[in-house]
Write a structure and sequence with these properties.
With 361 residues, the chain is α/β, with parallel strands linked by helices. It has 16 helices and eleven strands. The radius of gyration is 25 Å and the shape is globular.
């Protein structure tokens, strides 16, 4: 008898030469062997490509494994590198979930994702404006205005909107990140969705005119500029201020953060601009069922409490309180629940176009 078994994942080729009864018996044994082999290697894991660089996320994955027995494999890197790898590997990619910050990134990458994040639980806990069938928010963040209370009056702030940041009264008083920053692109995409591309093109010119200096640095750099007196107002995400106030970035940044105050724009209209950290289901994911289980876990009360108390983001699900430093910034603000975050990816090219045309570096 000659028996050759070639295994590639769950595929086997069996060539047997003997009596019919031996053939049947051998096939049964081979099938059992292949089933055990393939399941032990592939069925009890989930592979994450993550652009989020938080040790606390790894702790969450360990909790998930302890609860389910499903091993979590994580490939961390920058957004562009991870996306390039997934695209280049194509059908050979082992990626199940792509986790990153900003709906604009997930939207722009949607052609490489597949539907499936539509379980009853996901739909019941995540508002429809923060999810699609291909990706879903796992935490929220707000992009707001920070001001120097000794140089900016309450009257100036009254009724402040993102649109009114282009008013001439802010000339030479504003700092904000560069136009290639995804957070700014999503903010401008939201403005285009609500006001039209033409109006936002003019708005972008006003923003450039109002800048105290050419854009540079991350969100914390904008807050530091206000604290140092280089500008009177800045645009940055909420969790950056909380991070600075926590002291984890050092006493100098903690002291600087105490010199500025947060302001939530558009409270008389649609509400403050909201964005997400989210998880997308990669096309061809080899462990799709496990990937969906992991997303559901990330949206559980236990995981949401862990996220907000380590990253200073807002919870995606109801009934969870943010970190006390975030609570102190104010929780009674009106969130923009009108503008679906899927528009950030759809309008991303238009956003970059109007900013670039306005000379927004």
């Amino acid at each position: 008898m000659t028996l050759i078994i070639i295994i590639n994942k769950s595929i086997a080729l069996i060539i047997i030469k003997k009596k019919e009864t031996m053939i049947k018996k051998t096939i049964q044994i081979a099938a059992i062997f292949i089933f055990i082999f393939s399941n032990s290697l592939f069925a009890n894991e989930v592979n994450i490509f993550s652009a989020r660089h938080y040790d606390s996320d790894v702790q969450l994955y360990e909790k998930f494994t302890a609860k389910t027995g499903i091993k979590v494999n994580v490939i961390s890197g920058k957004t562009g590198a991870l996306e390039k790898r997934i695209i280049e590997e194509g059908s050979d990619s082992q990626a199940d979930l792509y986790i990153t910050a900003d709906a604009g990134r997930l939207g722009a990458f949607a052609s490489n994702l597949q539907g499936g994040l539509t379980s009853d639980y996901i739909k019941s806990v995540v508002p429809s404006n923060f999810r699609t069938s291909k990706w879903v928010g796992i935490a929220k963040r707000a992009r707001i205005v920070y001001f120097a209370p000794e140089r900016v009056s309450g009257a100036e702030l009254a009724g402040l909107t993102y649109e009114s940041l282009a008013d001439s009264k802010w000339k030479g008083r504003l700092v904000i990140r560069a136009s290639n920053n995804i957070y700014n692109q999503s903010l401008v995409a939201s403005l285009i969705k609500n006001n039209g591309k033409g109006k936002v093109a003019e708005w972008s010119k006003g923003m450039v005119s109002n800048m105290a200096r050419a854009p540079k640095g991350n969100d914390r750099a904008q807050i530091l500029a206000v604290a140092a007196g280089e500008a009177d107002i800045a645009v940055a995400n909420t969790y950056y201020l909380a991070l600075m106030l926590s002291g984890s970035k050092g006493p100098e940044q903690q002291a600087a953060a105490k010199k500025v105050k947060p302001f939530f724009p558009n409270q008389d209209g649609r509400g403050t601009h909201m964005n997400i950290s989210g998880a997308g289901l990669v096309k061809g994911a080899p462990n799709k069922a496990n990937a969906i289980k992991l997303v559901e876990f990330l949206l559980s009360g236990e995981a949401q409490n862990h996220i907000v108390n380590n990253t200073f983001e807002y919870p995606m699900i109801a009934g969870i309180s943010p970190h006390p430093l975030v609570v102190n910034m104010g929780l009674d603000f009106k969130q923009d629940l009108k503008t679906k975050v899927v528009n950030y990816g759809k309008r991303q090219a238009d956003a970059l176009e109007v900013m670039t045309a306005a000379g927004w570096k």
